[in-house]
Every structure is written in structure tokens, then in C-alpha cells.
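Dear colleagues,

For the upcoming journal club I promised to circulate an example of a predicted protein-ligand complex. I picked one with manganese (II) ion because it came up in last month's discussion. The inputs are reproduced below in full, followed by the predicted structure.
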Amino acid sequence: MDVYVRQGNILEVETDALVVNLFKGVTRPGGATGAVDKALDHAISELIRQGDLDGSLGQVAVLYPRGAIPAKRVLIVGLGEAEKFDLEAARRAAAAAAKKARALKAQSLTTIVHGAGVGGLDPRDAAQAVVEGTLLALYTFPKYQQKAEETPSLPSSLTIVEFDAAKVPALEEGARVGRIVAESVAFTRNLVMEPPNIATPAELARRAREMAEEVGLHVEVLTDPQLEELGMGLILGVGQGSANRPHLVVLEHNRGREDLPTVVLVGKGITFDTGGISLKRSQDMWRMKHDMAGAAAVLGAMRAIALLDLPLHVVSLTPFVENMPDGRAYRPADVLRNVNGKTVEVINTDAEGRLILADALGYAARYTPDAVVDLATLTGSQGIALGDLAAALFSNDDTLAQELMAVAPRVGERVWRMPLWDEYKEALRSDVAEVKNAGSRTGSLPNSAKFLEHFTEGYPWAHLDIASLVWVDTPKDYRPKGATGYGVRLLVEWLRTRSA
Ligand code: BES
Ligand code: MN
Ligand code: ZN
């Protein structure tokens, strides 16, 4: 979709769908909406008076100007209560309007920026949110569907119109960032949507390399010989049962710029999680194609970081591994050694994510990072604890945890901090190795984080268990059914704030 910002009068634009807005409880619209209302002989005020439109967030009413203004249709989108209005509301309002425009088969979509006027948002941020909400809501994955009716025709352009010329540069900047971010989320969603027979470790490494070369990231892909040479016994152990060999993708933004702060992003990239010898039940096992969503989010974030050219040295470590049962597969009771020589007793081969992360976290130390953040669909208990509303955040560093908690509401990707008390270690005590990879069901969520902490090497670190956030079964605001791309915007916003 093309995105434009234009200075002009909305009463003069030719478009298939013109989007204006309304806060809840407003009976006499002002601003741009007021101007359209007036031009349409107060048809918007009439909608309100008749009770057909009350400004609830995401509500959309449609009017046909019939020549009164050049726009073919006017979409009035509700912004909800003015006191509760924020960037996330702007994103959701834009999403609702975009989906309505698509349902009406509008090709050109023109909008004002929600919240940049009375809403009190920073115009740059508001424009970013409108572009993100629109592009994210219209995401589709038609790749494996041939029939035209299964792939809805999408609006082909989004134009932001602003009357005040002084605001236009800020809106242009916001639109540019919004587009980079939304397209990076789509990149992540595409990887997660791919079926596991296609998205093998080798193929994901190829896609990562292709993206890296496109946006100018340094790329290195480690396969069996290098993994063996380095002693990445946990990645190799988990991957032992699959003919699709492990690939560790290392991307680097601003490589060699040792003057810049260094951040390492780590993502769990299990391309399919059968559970291995500790086999999962067959019910819903197909979902485990999304067990690489942490790694996919990290790659999407790296794409945006490169395109935004953030003044930071950022490294990503994304191990791609398939967890399969096989005659050669690793087994419960095996003892494996990570890249730094730390040993693990495997109790359950289905607790595989923490194993591959333990190698990546160990390897991260070589970059002497100022911060390390990992994203992983690590446990079922994360969703039991928090539902699908927030990722579980664990951190050994209060400042880092605060930074992530502060940016989360701005992007609408909630996180909730959980404890890393030392006593959780007891559940992971092994009789033969330094730690075991699983305890009992009790404390499954904090235990998994405590396991990871054992493999960190003194750097500030945060772990985000995103298991319940990476996939939705029913469409929600700007998240169509399927992969959500959770984490991309959180990481990008965190690093944008950190580099500002
Ligand atoms: N990939 C799963 C976690 C998961 C479950 C993600 C459901 C998304 C939805 C992970 O590898 C796993 O199997 N975890 C086990 C750990 C247990 C064996 C200690 C779990 O949470 O049950
Ligand atoms: Mn598992
Ligand atoms: Zn898993």
C-alpha cells in the first residue's frame, strides 16, 4: 500500500473513502469533522442525534455526500472517550476505518490524523499510529490461496490530509516511521504464517539473509560445523532429531561501531515443536509452527532498526531449530553442554526453547552488551497466568525492566513483570548436571526464566515470555486472525527511546 501525506482541504479531496472522527459524547463535531458535517448539511450531527453514532472507539458510520464534496464516501470513526484517548486508540480507530473501507471495496483511502488536534497527541506520533493501525489491520497472507475471492481486494493507497502546512513535516516523518514499522511487523507475520515444511531452519536463515542484504545489516549464518566448533551443545542437542539442520542467524547493525552502546536481541526460533521424545499430544499441535515467533519478531525489529538507522550497535541472535522425535533425537536424561561449558540435564525434551536460548544467551556475552533482551514462546503457563493481554517480563535489572514497561503502553504491547526469586532455582537442581531443564508443574513460568538466568553472563538482561501473544484465533482491532507480530513494535520503540 502506498502512503502519502498532503497539505490540503479535506472538503476538496477526491477519494473513495474520506475518514473523519468523533470523540464519544460529542454532539456538535468541530475541526475537520465539523467542516465535513457542515458541507453535508449536518448529516453527521443527524447521525449522532438519531443515536446511530456515539463515538465509541472503533465504531464506523458511512455517509454518501452525493456531490456535496468530491469524496465518494465519508467514514466517521469513533475515537472513544477523550480522556482515555492515546496512541493505541488512534491505531485502533485507524484500523476500524481501514477495515470498513476494505469491506466497501474502496481503492483510495484518505484520512485526517486522529488525535493530532483536540486529542492532544504529538502529531508525529499520531501519524505513525494511524499508518500502523491501517497497514497492520489490512495485512493478509494469501500466498497459498489461489482463488481470488479468498484474497480480499485491498485499498491501494492511504493519504493523510492536513490543513495546517506547519504540521506536515512532522506528519511525513511519522508516516515514514509508521510504514517502516508496519512493514517490519508484516515481515514477521509472514515468517510465522509460513507452514513448517517451508519455513525450515535453512529457509528462515535464507529469508533472514535476504532481508539483511536488502536493508544493509551484516549477516552471518552458523550451521553444523561452526556450531560444533563453538560448542553450542544445546542448539545441536535439540536439533539432533531433525533432518532439517539447525541454523543460528547473527545479524548486526552498525557492526564495528564500538563507540555506540551495544544491545543484543535474542529470539526463540523453534520452527516446529513436536515436543520431541517427550511428545506433545496431537490436539492443536499444528499451532507449534508459531514456536519461532520470538525469533521472527527479533528479525522484524532488526529490519526496522536498520531502516530507521538507529544510532546503536544492535546484534541479533536467532537460533532456528526443529524439535522432532527420531531415532537420533535427544532424550530425557541426556546431559548437554552450552557454548560456555555450562551443563544441563534434560528432564523433558519439550522444554527445548530454554535450551537453544541458553546457547544464544551464553554467546551474547562475547559482544559485552549493555543490555540483552530475549523473546520466546517459552511456556504454556505464561498464558495461564496473564491470558493473552500481556507478555511475562523477567529481568535481573530494574532500569531495563522499567524501560520496557514504560514503552509497552505506547505501542499497545503490554508486559507485566514477574519475580526472579532465588528460591526458584531449587526446582531446577540436578543430581548430575548444574541445572535441569524442567521442574514440576508448580512455578513452570518463573522456573523457565530462572533457568535462562543461569546462562546469562552478568549483563543486564530481560526475558519476555510471549507464548500467548503471537497468535490470535479471532481477529482483534489491527490484528487479523493468525500471526500478530507481537514484540516488533515493543523492541523498536524501546530502542528508539534508548537512542534518543
Ligand atoms: N513452545 C512451548 C510453549 C508454548 C505452549 C507456546 C503453548 C505457545 C503455546 C514450549 O516449548 C513448551 O513445550 N513448554 C512446556 C515446558 C514444560 C515441558 C516444562 C510447557 O509450557 O508446557
Ligand atoms: Mn516445547
Ligand atoms: Zn517450544
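Two points we might discuss: The mean pLDDT is 97. The domain at 183-499 is CATH 3.40.630.10 (Aminopeptidase).

See you all on Thursday,
B. R.
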